[in-house]
Structure formats: C-alpha cells, structure tokens
Amino acid sequence: MVSERGLLIVLSGPSGVGKGTVRKALFSQPDINLQYSISVTTRKPREGEVDGVDYFFKTREEFEQMIRENKLLEWAEYVGNYYGTPIDYVEKTLQEGKDVFLEIEVQGALQVRKVFPEGLFIFLAPPSLSELRKRIEMRGTESEELIRDRLRAAREELEMMDAYDYVVENDRVELACERIKAIVMAEHCRRERVACRYKKMLEVE
Ligand SMILES: Nc1ncnc2c1ncn2[C@@H]1O[C@H](COP(=O)(O)OP(=O)(O)OP(=O)(O)O)[C@@H](O)[C@H]1O
Ligand SMILES: Nc1nc2c(ncn2[C@@H]2O[C@H](COP(=O)(O)O)[C@@H](O)[C@H]2O)c(=O)[nH]1
C-alpha cells in the first residue's frame, strides 16, 4: 500500500556546528511546514531555556523510567547527560501525515536510522574544525572541560557523516536553511513520483 505518512527528517552533526541555530532559523520562516519534536534531557536548563519549549527537563530517575517503559524512539548519553526523543509524538504526528523534524546528536541519529530507514538523514558540517571550536567557545555556555569533551566527541562524530543521506555545510545560516529546504522538497517530489508509479502499476494489474 502507498503510505501517506509524513516524512521523518533528522538533522544531526557535532556539538556547536549550529544545529539549533539553523533549526530555529528554519522554523521562523513562514512557508515551513515541519513539526519539531521536543527532546527529553537530564541536562540542566541554560539561561533562557524553557521546559516544554527547548526540552522537557527530567531527572535521571525520570529519564531511566522512560527508557524502561519504552517511551523513547532513541536515546543517548552524551557528555554526561541523557538525551532522548519521545516516541509517541513522532508516531502520532507522522501518522497524521505531517513531517517531523528531529535535531539530535550522532549516536541517536544512527539508532533512528535502524527504526526508520525511510527517514531523511542530514548531517550539518562545519566549514572547518577550527571554526567549530570557535563556535562552541563563542557560545559561552560550557566550561573549558565540557568544551574539550564536546570537541573530542565532535572528531568521532565527523567520521560518521558518510552514514547520512546528505551533508550540508553550515557556512552561513541562511544558506544552510535554503539547502535543507531544497533537500526536503526534492525528497517529497521523489516520494510522490515513486507513489505515482506504484499506483499506476496497481491499476495495470
Ligand atoms: N553559520 C554560522 N556562522 C557563524 N556562527 C554560527 C553559525 N551557525 C551557528 N553559529 C553559532 O555557533 C554557536 C553554536 O551554535 P548552536 O548552539 O546552534 O550549535 P548546536 O549544533 O546546536 O550545538 P549543540 O549540539 O551543542 O547544542 C552559536 O553561538 C551560534 O550563534
Ligand atoms: N540522541 C539525542 N540527542 C539529542 C536529543 N536532543 C538534543 N540532542 C543533542 O544533544 C547534544 C547536546 O545538546 P545541548 O542542548 O546540551 O547542547 C546536541 O548535539 C543535540 O543535538 C535527543 O533527543 N536525542
């Protein structure tokens, strides 16, 4: 049967590359028709972050209970904190035919790939490692030690970019947004063509 489920779009990449910045810029555009899946984390809120908007902030016990109850599509322990994607929201929204957008780190994206191989996986890449370091440092939200940990993780994460469908360079936020929009649009066209061919094939039989 031809599926009319929404498309699952996963934006991933190393810490500090600009995933959050690009995602916010994308969602601020009036013509965008994507549903953002809010993650659960045990990390403490940064200044200005709001529970239920930026993340659902939980204790480690609450998070571990969600793992036990299979409430997460994927989860990862990243630099000392848990992060995960609530499965109910993703399933319900895709079922309604809407596109769901996840912004998650690399281990989690690879888990999602196993469950949703038909998803669209986009790796956001920095122009260079030195620019990545500069961005994490300039953000000023982590201690020296955490910046070091995140940069160490980034080197391993960059090696995983071949596992994605597309690599988008985040040189300039507006350009990265346009590239992502073009990829999503092309993927919809491709799926419609496949669905159309499938329908015609059924008509002939
Ligand atoms: N294209 C860009 N050019 C210059 N600076 C950028 C660009 N994109 C993002 N930044 C800056 O880089 C810093 C990190 O961006 P952001 O917090 O969005 O990264 P992230 O990938 O979401 O990080 P994390 O995974 O740690 O949450 C921010 O200070 C942001 O303003
Ligand atoms: N595997 C998952 N990773 C997630 C999720 N939500 C966010 N993230 C990623 O974690 C790191 C650190 O985030 P920060 O807000 O502490 O800077 C970053 O790469 C996020 O994209 C998730 O649900 N699952």
Can you describe this structure?
- This protein has helices at 19-27, 60-68, 87-95, 106-115, 129-139, 144-158, 173-204; strands at 8-12, 34-36, 40-41, 56-57, 72-78, 81-86, 99-103, 120-125, 166-169.
- The longest helix is centred in the last third of the chain and has 32 residues, at 173-204.
- A hairpin with a 2-residue loop joins strand 5 and strand 6 (81-86).
- A five-stranded parallel sheet has the order 2-7-1-8-9, with helices on both faces. Strands 4-3-6-5 form a four-stranded mixed sheet.
- The radius of gyration is 18 Å and the shape is globular.
- The chain has seven helices and nine strands, in the order βαβββαββαβαβααβα.
- The mean pLDDT is 93.
- The protein is 46% helix and 20% strand.
- With 205 residues, the chain is an alpha/beta fold.
- The protein has a domain at 8-37 and 98-203: Rossmann fold (3-Layer(aba) Sandwich).
- The structure holds adenosine-5'-triphosphate (ATP) and the ligand Nc1nc2c(ncn2[C@@H]2O[C@H](COP(=O)(O)O)[C@@H](O)[C@H]2O)c(=O)[nH]1.
- The site of ligand LQESDW3C has 15 residues, from strand 5, strand 6 and helix 4.
- One of its GO terms (molecular function) is ATP binding.
- It comes from Thermolongibacillus altinsuensis.
- ATP binds at residues 13-20.
- Its EC number is 2.7.4.8.
- It is an enzyme of class 2 (transferase).
